[in-house]
Amino acid sequence: MIPRMPTLCGLRRRRGYTPEAIKRFVDLIGYTKVEAINDVSLLEHAIREDLNMKAPRVFGVLNPLKVIIQNYPEGKVENVELVNNPEDESMGKRLVPFSNEVYIEQDDFMENPPNKFFRLAPGMEVRLKGAYIIKCTGFKKNAKSGAIEEVYCTYDPETRSGGNASDKKVKGLYTGYPQRRHSMQRCGFMTGSSTTKIHRGRKMMTTGNSSIPTRSKYSQAARLSPH
Fold this sequence. Notes:
The protein is an alpha+beta fold and about 230 residues long. It contains four helices and eleven strands, in the order αααβββββββββββα.
């Protein structure tokens, strides 16, 4: 199949690029009568820069790995607050349900991590954004494939964000994910190893009828767009 030409109409209606972002892209590449080829990453930079100030954040998981918080009461659900846009407080906050099961990206856990690996691994601690600090105590592998199926953790109830001990420092910050049945708009917990991507952090900035990944190739943006 021959790909469609990236026309202005197509960028605006099908990809969710705002007029301001397209104008910013034109300013970045300059005005010239000479034919030139510009990297599409410059166009993506322009849309990220524009949406960063005015689009709400939502999260999702592409390759989920279940994390069970063993000392968190089973059946208990509490709501934690996450900001819709850290660049604009007027956009308010959203409530995200938190329970003893959350999901993280598979790449954000390693059985034998290298140096300077600040995500989840046996014996390591990370903070779930808006919630608690958790520590990995073990994991379960598939008997046949050897793939890791579940990760077991404990949490420190004194470290909830905004609490008395919330200033405890850990190097890993996760924006975890509640149970799978929640829609992407309700996601709040997901790995924030880079706090990016639709998982593995892919942080999505939404506008109009489309979603733009904060770090992706143009083809990935096309596949991830819901329209």
